[in-house]
Amino acid sequence: MKATIAVLAGDGIGPEVTAQGVSVLQAVASKFGHSFEFREGLIGGCAIDKTGKPLPPETKALCTSADAILLGAVGGPKWDDPNAPVRPEQGLFEVRKDLGLFANLRPVATQPKLAYASTLRPDVLAGVDMLVVRELTGGLYYGEKKKNADSASDLCVYTGDEIRRVVRRAAALAQGRRKKLTSVDKANALETSRLWRRITTEIVAKEFPDVALEHVLVDACAMYLMRRPASFDVIVTENMFGDILTDEASVLAGSMGLLPSASLGESKVGLYEPIHGSAPDIAGKGIANPYATILSAAMLLRHSLGLEKEAAAVEKAVGDAIDRDVLTADIAPAGAKAATTVEAGQAVVAEI
Q: Is beta strand 103-109 parallel, antiparallel or unpaired with respect to 260-264?
């Protein structure tokens, strides 16, 4: 097949890890007889420096015309002033909103070989295989914001339709897995969560009767992720809760450098990125872990291009590279020689 993939490398380690994602996609195209065209665009801090905008019109047009988007990371100390009117993350929020990417899929699975990389006991980590579906275009991050010298407010708003579409997506994904859906909210304190809980209950009961539904308060879920993570199958939650919980869940895998994500809407165009940030402290050193970006590329193959066999091949290649001890500094055992970013990417390409 032919496909156009927009590559938004962004800031910090973004260019380093996306380069490896592109190399892997090129290897997939070569092996399986596809034709992928890669087009680069600016986003985040580097876009502000060059154009004054975190998402320039040219990048918007590129994203709209592409079949899928591979993104690195945005932000860094240079643009860290919280009072600045223009900030790197605004570009990311804007592209999600413009493309209607309301569902953020973040799979979290553990590899027995890397149990030492987590701070949790191996018996707690055994069998962890969950998918967190985070609502991505509503809630506090997009609500009306007000500020004066002595007070500030961020409005959290959810409509019934926003809740229904992400819950339907999560429940459908649960049907293809272990048929268990955990909805996370704060219904004991927030009206938006009470609406979320009522609508979720109605949808699952009427449209997905084969899916077992449980409701868990967000603070309890944070504890359960550390105490009994293997009990979760699919988790669905609102924007801010999902952002926080999935960063916490990276402890299970051992590193943020192992966790991919896919941001999806109603169309097949999706945005794929590692869950980690721009890591400015290691940018340019060639030591960043590219596996999360490469696994995001696998999700791109699966969800936007419909290439399941190719996606599975990439995921297996990453697992095989890890089994061969091609481990970057964040997951390498103490005292062991760590692989560079390029070496890790090349190991996956070689497996493919």
A: antiparallel
Q: How far apart are CA 299 and CA 275, in angstroms?
A: 13
Helix, strand, or coil here: 318? helix
Q: Do domains 1-102+267-352 and 119-253 have the same CATH topology?
A: yes
Calpha distance 17→296 (Å, rounded): 11
Q: pLDDT of 238-282, one tens digit each?
A: 999 999 999 899 899 999 999 999 999 999 999 999 999 999 999
Number of residues written out for the chain: 352
For the chain, domain boundaries:
1-102+267-352, 119-253
**120 burial level (CB within 10 Å; 0-12, 13-18, 19+):** middle
CA-closest candidate to residue 283, choices 6, 70, 7, 10 = 10
Domain 1-102+267-352 fold: Isopropylmalate Dehydrogenase (3.40.718)
Residue 33 per-residue DSSP state: T
Positions marked catalytic: 141, 186, 219, 243, 247
pTM over 0.85: yes
Class of domain 119-253: alpha beta
β-pair partners for 105: 133, 262
**Which tens digit of pLDDT belongs to each residue from 284-323?**
999 999 999 999 999 999 999 999 999 999 999 999 999 9
Asked whether the beta carbons of 273 and 293 are under 8 A apart, the reply is yes
Pairing of strands 271-274, 68-73: parallel
Smallest CA-to-CA distance from 274 within 77, 92, 106, 59 is with 106
Helix axes 341-351, 291-303, angle to 10 degrees: 40
